[in-house]
Amino acid sequence: MNKAKATTIKEALAKWEEKNGQKPSEAKEVKLYAQVPPIEKMDASLSSLVNCEKLSLSTNCIEKIANLNGLKNLRILSLGRNNIKNLNGLEAVGDTLEELWISYNQIEKLKGLHVMKKLKILYMSNNLVKDWAEFVRLAELPLLEDLVFVGNPLEEKYSADSQSAWVEEATKRVPRLKKLDGIPVIKQEEGEEGEN
Q1: Nearest to 57 by CA among 93, 83, 19
Q2: Residue partners of 90: CB distance under 8 A and separation at least 6
Q3: Is 62 within 8 Å of 33 (Cβ atoms)?
Q4: How far is 129 from 125, CA to CA, in rounded Å?
Q5: Distance CA 74, CA 1 (A)
Q6: At what angle do helices 163-173 and 153-161 cross, to 10 degrees?
Q7: Using only C-alpha atoms, what is the Rg of the chain?
Q8: CA 90, CA 67: separation in Å to the nearest integer?
Q9: CA 72: distance to chain centroid?
């Protein structure tokens, strides 16, 4: 048990306040990425971030999304490079969150995503999604238009044959996408109909 103790959110916020000379509760943007030792839990101290619009907790060792209830103004949440296994816990910011950056985690299932009514941008490359049954849940997001999904087993399986096979299959299932894996989605039919 002589493992370095994890940094708590409270400690990280205290460090942030010292460095930035601003109270975290007043800040619009709070960066707590790559803490040493890493943050392991999204604890209740997060609820003090009432004005936060962009929160970065990337490159830590977080396993669960939690305690976002107080963040009534959160628009961008960055959780890349953690150990997150599912998307539970996002319902607390379902009415405000517009961008979720959650690449390089362990996410296999997309249950719990449908609550994100305002989500426009989802960066979730290099996770573990391998079934279309999970992927189609993305179609439940009414505003989603920019998706990065590269490096998930599902994408890798289709892109192995050809990049266009992946794009075609993915956009067929989530037709509202305007951008997939950084590339604008071009839809033939729409353009032609517009010309009449």
Answers
A1: 83
A2: 65, 68, 97, 100, 112, 113, 115, 116
A3: no
A4: 10
A5: 36
A6: 130
A7: 18
A8: 9
A9: 17
Give 114-138 pLDDT, tens digit per residue. 999 999 999 999 999 999 999 999 9
Residue for token pair 């963040």: 71
Q: What is the 3-state secondary structure (H, E, C) of 91-160?
A: HHHCCCCCEEECCCCCCCCCCCHHHCCCCCEEECCCCCCCCHHHHHHHHHCCCCCEEECCCCHHHHHHHH
CB atoms within 10 A of CB 46: 25
Return all residues near 156 (Cβ < 8 A) that are at least 6 apart. Answer: none
Are the C-beta atoms of residues 119 and 99 closer than 8 Å to each other? yes
For 145-192, what is each residue's pLDDT tens digit? 999 999 999 999 998 877 789 999 999 999 999 999 999 998 765 444
In single-letter form, the type of residue at position 169 comes to: E
- pTM of the entire predicted model: 0.92
Instruction: Order the strands of the 146-148 sheet from edge to edge.
Output: 29-31, 54-56, 76-78, 99-101, 121-123, 146-148, 179-180, 183-184
